[in-house]
Design goal:
InterPro entries: PRX5-like (IPR037944), Redoxin (IPR013740), Thioredoxin-like_sf (IPR036249), Thioredoxin_domain (IPR013766). The protein contains four helices and six strands, in the order βββαβααβαβ. It is α/β, with parallel strands linked by helices. The strands form two sheets. Strands 1, 4, 5 and 6 form a four-stranded parallel β-sheet that branches. The protein has a two-stranded antiparallel ribbon with strand order 2-3. The longest helix has 13 residues.
């Protein structure tokens, strides 16, 4: 695939949630409808629910154990950032990263990795 630059504003976003996955009923399978849950972006005031976030969008959702951890910082997030344009060319509208960190930590982590505009971060 071409490595051409595509404007990726809002393509990669990052969010925070403190609700463990097992409370959602286990593993979410490909093509399944996500449970509706409130996520936070940028700060504790900026909320979005999963129903609105994913409505009508072909998305990739991934979670990481924690911002600034070695595996997540060296492998997980950079892997998605490096492939962002390829995912866009395959027709994906957004990459969404969910962490258990607070929105402020997750935002700082996204800035450090230049993920803004490439990966959506939710908390």
């Amino acid at each position: 695939m071409s490595k051409a630059f595509y404007p990726a504003q809002m393509f990669i976003r990052s969010f925070h949630t403190s609700k463990p996955l097992f409370l959602f009923g286990g593993v979410i399978k490909e093509g399944a409808t996500l449970p509706n849950h409130t996520l936070f972006e940028h700060d504790a005031k900026t909320k979005i629910n999963t129903k609105d976030l994913f409505k009508g969008k072909k998305s990739i959702l991934f979670g990481v154990p924690g911002a600034f951890t070695p595996g997540c910082s060296k492998t997980h997030l950079p892997g998605y950032i490096n492939q962002a344009n390829d995912f866009r060319q395959l027709g994906y509208d957004q990459l969404v990263c969910v962490t258990v960190n607070d929105p402020y930590v997750s935002s700082a982590w996204a800035k450090e990795h230049r993920a803004e505009g490439k990966v959506s971060r939710r908390f």
